[in-house]
Write a structure and sequence with these properties.
The chain is an alpha+beta fold and 158 residues long. The protein folds into two domains: 49 residues, no CATH class; 69 residues. Strand 6 and strand 7 form a beta hairpin. The relative contact order is 0.11.
Length: 158
C-alpha cells in the first residue's frame, strides 16, 4: 500500500514537473471534467483558480487583500446612531421644584432632557441639585434628583 501511494506521489510530481517544463498549463486541463468537479474545484472563482494554477506551475504569487469601508449616508426617517448609555451624574441648572408632566431639565454639562411620562412629583425648592440619569434597555432613560426616591422617565432633546 505504501508503495502505491509513493508511486502515485512520484507520478504526480513528475507530471507537475513535466507540465512546468512544457509551459504553464491549467489544472483544469490536467483533469477530466468529472475529476475537476469531484475535487470541488468548480466552486473556485476565476481569481482563486488563477492562484491555484500559478502555485501548481511554480510561480510565486502574492495575495493582496483589500479592506473596503462603505459609508452609508443618513437619510430622513432613518434611525439616529445609538447614543452612549453610561450613567450621567451632573447638576440641574437653576431652580428645581419637581416635575409636572412635561418638564424640561437643563444639566450643567449642557445637555437638555425632557420628561417623557406624565407623572408628577412636587419637591421643596432646590437650587442646582445633583441629578443622576441611568439607562435601561427596557425602560429607557430615567432621572433621579438627589434627596428624593422618585424617578422620572426622560428623553434627551439636546
Amino acid at each position: 500500500m505504501k508503495r502505491i501511494v509513493l508511486f502515485m506521489l512520484l507520478a504526480l510530481c513528475s507530471g507537475l514537473a513535466g507540465a512546468q517544463q512544457a509551459g504553464a498549463t491549467s489544472i483544469k486541463d490536467r483533469m477530466s471534467p468529472e475529476q475537476f468537479k469531484a475535487a470541488g474545484l468548480n466552486k473556485l472563482s476565476d481569481s482563486e483558480l488563477k492562484q491555484l494554477n500559478a502555485w501548481f506551475n511554480g510561480e510565486k504569487t502574492v495575495v493582496v487583500e483589500k479592506t473596503v469601508i462603505v459609508e452609508k449616508p443618513v437619510e430622513a426617517g432613518m434611525a439616529a446612531p445609538k447614543q452612549a448609555t453610561d450613567d450621567i451624574k451632573s447638576r440641574l441648572v437653576g431652580e428645581f421644584k419637581g416635575w409636572r408632566g412635561n418638564t424640561v431639565f437643563t444639566l450643567e454639562n449642557g445637555q437638555v432632557w425632557q420628561q417623557s411620562d406624565n407623572s408628577e412629583m412636587y419637591a421643596k425648592k432646590l437650587i442646582n441639585p445633583e441629578a443622576l440619569l441611568t439607562h435601561s434597555s427596557l425602560a429607557g432613560w430615567r432621572m433621579q434628583v438627589k434627596g428624593y426616591n422618585s424617578w422620572v422617565k426622560v428623553k434627551r432633546v439636546k
